[in-house]
Amino acid sequence: MNRPVLHFWEASPAARVCQLVIRYLNLDVEIRTRSYEDHKSVEFKKLNPSQKIPVLQDGDFVLGESLAICQYLIEKNGSEMELLGKNVKDRAIVMHRLCFTLGTVFIKLYNLTQPLYDGKTKEYDKELLQDCLKMLLELDTYLSEYKWAAADYITLADLYILTMVASLKHSGFDLTPYQNISKWYKNCEMLPGFDENETGAKRLGNDLTGFMTK
């Protein structure tokens, strides 16, 4: 039987969270690194009509969108279902954190950084930068409520938020003023795949620095 394949670009937080789930569950999945330009190709459009990375191929089954991929991997594996929450209330908090991460943190990070990738600017927009700082204050409050992001145990919310916080850190944001984020981030060093996530976040930061200095 062929191994599942994750089409992956290390600078992408969305791709890195899938990698973190794979490492956390110790899954036998091929992580196939693609370039930033690959997703624009005709070949990739046939694989994923939205032309976004990550994409998971599991035999004839092809799935895009990081949250769908993560949930599929967790449920198919079945041994760590608590990543989605142990009970209905915990699952609701996990979902809240995921909604906040995808609907607020990711969008603000994307809006701030994508214009540099597109060559439209060589510096961060000041208003968008302030939006990110306000968002970090909100995240810092959420991370004061439990030992981990959504409960007193590790959930998918931690893996998602980790990719975003690492991306912000290595894109020039000082996390020192945010005590809860800093403490939580330190705790995350124990997670499988933490160092790989750091490498990808540094790649993002290096890309952005390069765009600013061209």
Automatic annotation (TrEMBL):
GO BP of this protein: glutathione metabolic process
Concerning PROSITE patterns, the annotation shows: GST_CTER (PS50405), GST_NTER (PS50404)
Gene Ontology molecular functions: glutathione transferase activity
This enzyme catalyses:
RX + glutathione = an S-substituted glutathione + a halide anion + H(+)
Q: Which UniProt keywords apply?
A: Transferase
Task: Give the superkingdom in one word.
Answer: Eukaryota
EC number(s) given by UniProt: 2.5.1.18
Q: Which residues form the GST C-terminal domain?
A: 87-208
Q: Which residues form the GST N-terminal domain?
A: 2-81
Q: Which PANTHER family match?
A: GLUTATHIONE S TRANSFERASE D10, ISOFORM A-RELATED
Subunit-structure text: Homodimer.
* Family listed: Belongs to the GST superfamily. Theta family.
In its UniProt entry, what is this protein called?
glutathione transferase
Originating species: Culicoides sonorensis
